């Protein structure tokens, strides 16, 4: 008499990028750039040097570092 030992079944994980936009993103709208400049008190010359990674991390807006 042989009894089958059930193997543990792992639930499949959802992909890390499920539901996220992939590919090229829309550029920031002018009013978003204006709000960013006002809220962060950056000058125009500082704004043009910004990279997306400076503002966003993982699809979310980064908090400002208070020095």
Key structural traits:
67 residues, mainly alpha, two-stranded antiparallel ribbon, 3 helices, 28% helix
Explained architecture:
The protein has a domain of 32 residues. It has 3 helices and 2 strands, in the order αααββ. A hairpin with a 2-residue loop joins strand 1 and strand 2. It is mainly alpha-helical and 67 residues long.
Residues in helices, as a percent range: 25-40%
Strand content: 5-15%
Mean pLDDT: 77
Distance between the termini: 72 Å
Q: Rounded to an integer, what's the Rg over CA atoms? A: 23 Å
Name the structural class. Answer: mainly alpha
What about the largest sheet?
Answer: 2 strands, antiparallel
H and E string: HHHEE
Strands ordered across the widest β-sheet = 1-2
Count the beta strands.
2
Write the layout of secondary structure elements.
Blueprint: H1 30-40, H2 44-47, H3 52-55, E1 56-57, E2 60-61
Antiparallel strand pairs: 1-2
Give the structure's gist in a few sentences.
The chain is mostly helical. It has helices spanning 30-40, 44-47, 52-55, and strands at 56-57, 60-61.
């Amino acid at each position: 008499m042989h009894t089958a030992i059930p193997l543990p079944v792992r639930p499949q994980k959802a992909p890390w990028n499920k539901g996220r936009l992939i590919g090229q993103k829309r550029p920031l709208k002018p009013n978003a750039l204006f709000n960013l400049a006002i809220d962060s008190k950056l000058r125009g010359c500082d704004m043009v040097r910004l990279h997306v990674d400076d503002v966003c991390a993982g699809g979310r807006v980064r908090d400002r570092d208070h020095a």
